[in-house]
User: Fold this.
Amino acid sequence: ESTRGIGNQHIDLDQWPFAVKRFHHVFDFVEQRRLNAIALTERLQGIDGLLLPSEPVGRRHAYQQYTVRVTPDVALDRDLLAQKMLAHGVECGIYYPRPVFDYPCFRDDPRLGDLDVPRATLIAGQVLSLPVHPALDIDDIDLVEINEAFASVVLAWQREFEADPAKVNVN
Assistant:
C-alpha cells in the first residue's frame, strides 16, 4: 500500500487530493489569525504594563498564540487577570507557566547543571495568551473588556482611541 508522508503522518494515495485541497485552508486560517492579532494589538497598545507581541520587519508571525506579558505596572497580576477574563467569557490560556528546563524531564538532566535564571522564571509567571483564532471576527475583538486591571487608563484610552462606549465594558 503506497503512502506519501507529511511529517510523521501518512495518508493513502487515494486520499491525497482531498488532503491537498484542505491544506490550502491553512493559509487562510493563518492570515485570519494575523488579522485578528493586528486588530487586538491596535486595541491593546498603550496600556501601561501590558507588553504585546510584535512582528519584526520582513517577517510574518503565524500567531498560533497571541501571548502578552502582564508586568507589575498592570493593577492585576497575570493569574487574577486570566480569572477575570474567563469569568467574562473571554478565553485565555497560560501555556508557559514555568521555564522549559523546570520540567522533570529537563530538570533531572545532568547536562543542565544548576540553572539560576530569575528573569526567565519571572517572565514565565507573567505571560498570558489571548484568543486570536480564525473563528473570531472583528466584532468579537471589538468587545473590549476594560476592567479594573486597566481602570487608571480607561477614560484616556477611550478618548484617545475614540472607542465606541457601547463596546467598552460590555459584560
About this structure: Confidence is low (pLDDT under 50) at residues 1-6, 144-153. The CA atoms of residues 155 and 163 lie 10 Å apart. The beta strands are 3-6, 9-12, 50-51, 66-70, 127-130. The two ends are 56 Å apart (CA to CA).
